[in-house]
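Reagents: none. Just compute today. Flagellar motor switch protein FliM.
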Amino acid sequence: MVDVLSQNEIDALLAALSSGEMDAEDLKKEETTRKISVYDFKRAVRFSKDHIRSLTRIHENFARYLTTYFSAQLRTFVQINVVDVEQLPYDEFIRSIPKMTILNIFEAEPLEGRMVLEVNPNVAYAMLDRLLGGPGTAPSKMNALTEIETIIMEKVFARAFDSLQEAWKTVIDIKPKLEGLETNPQFMQIVSPNETIALISFSTKIGDTTGMINLCIPHVVLEPIMPRLSVHHWFVSQKKERIPEEVEILEHRVKKTKLPIIAELGEATITIQEFLGLAQGDVLTLNKPVDEGLKIKVGEKLKFIGSPGSIRDRLAIQIDEIVSEGAEEDYDE
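Predicted 3D structure written out:
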């Protein structure tokens, strides 16, 4: 990162040059000297800051969807937030998680490769306890999942991946599918140890229990769609035009839409007693002359002015005038 000098440092530097304490030629030599920075090949930088920002934005939506989903499933207070998005070697991620944890291994077509959603045991067992009718607290001693508990956890997290699909819709339409559930990180080798991954960490609170959920996405999985994670792509995708087939289908549906057409003869105000006393042959006086055009409304909008008549012994309306847009108020006065 380039250091920015303050105004006092700039003034001191100019004063030193003016007094001869520093030589301008020496400064030029320092600038031309080749600068060497240390690069760790085991921690290769594969994701730019732009990519990290996009991943953060996507998974903030994922966190909101997960919060809604788990709140409904567990029927208790759930809060999930993104706390960090970083890139690191896969081996470092494996060494950082507990020896006994919940690892949901999944794929997301059309992306190639496997990803992992790691759930801290405190969070996982609190979910399990709540699903089985308990208060939602994690046990003091973590035992291996039974066959029934494993099936319950798989079903819960299989449906949770629908939230991931929804969060990624703005970038790519993926179809996440749970492959299996592991509890020992040593038995899970989805990529080589030195492969760079994007690690999205979520702070999770279920009732009074807190813990972390980590989403591990290898770089090789995201590599084909890396250009879509740029800010430029986000702005361009917002201007995407409809293809001709979509426009034709939309026009066809609009043409088939049914709207009520109402011709108003006029209005009259009567009391409830007069209304109850109405009988066949009674006459109501309307509020407009006979020779004045009738208002014809499409839906609730005034669109035409017409005249009453009949065709083949049926009542009909003849359209005499098309009301231009914005002229409704003139006829309502």
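Residues 45 and 87 are 7 Å apart (CA to CA).
Action item: order primers for follow-up constructs.
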